[in-house]
Specification:
kinase; Butyryl-CoA Dehydrogenase, subunit A, domain 3; EC 2.7.11.-; 6 helices; ATP-binding; mainly alpha; single chain; ATP binding
Amino acid sequence: MFFTRRLLSLPFSSSISKKLAHYSQFHPSSLNVQQYLDFGKTGTPKSSYLFLKNELLVRLANIMQEISLLPPNLLKMTSARLVSGWL
């Protein structure tokens, strides 16, 4: 849970920190070409929405977790502070 403690210490609001900690526990889905082709034939807008709704949260949480694990010198850079400020 080191990652969660480190993530919660970032300057995000507490509600966002809790959601990031929750979704960062999941791994992003990996899809192969066949799955894309199958979805193109049988997929619906609703199933696409439901998949992306969760997948985007998982990927964003994992990205923010990776940013929080940067060395302190990199976290002080303008670009890292800018991205952290988006949330």
